[in-house]
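1st attempt posting a full record on here, be nice pls
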Amino acid sequence: MTPIMKNQTGQVLVELALVLPFLAMFVFGIFDFGRWMYGANTLNHAAGAGARAAAVMTTPLPTPVTSGRVDAPTNDMERAINLNLLSSKLTGSVTYDVQIIYSGGRTVGPTQAGDLVHVTVRWPTFQLVNPMLKSLYSPTVLGEATVRYE
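the predicted structure (as tokens):
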């Protein structure tokens, strides 16, 4: 009696070699997505704290758009953003932009009650862990918040 099935030694190894790259890409993709979500949530919280601090500053914000880095804070808004980023361990440079949206048709001038303060915090140096996507895509993570100036 001859066996119907032939010798299949090594079949599992070949199947594993075919499936393992896709499985690894999927697992690293989940890990990268979690890191991206953590960064986005942290930056949204930092932008909210910065916008709240800018909205209650005693000195009006002088220009409609302010930009900078948060590693050396010089005012309450930058301190609030920096304080929220200290424990997060986000690596690389984090920058911010502040835009004043004037009320009543004004386009320039010092901020007044009723104007909107829009803060955007960017983390442009986010690095993917997934080796397949690392060379193809490098996303910028950002957080935004808008608060009414008091």
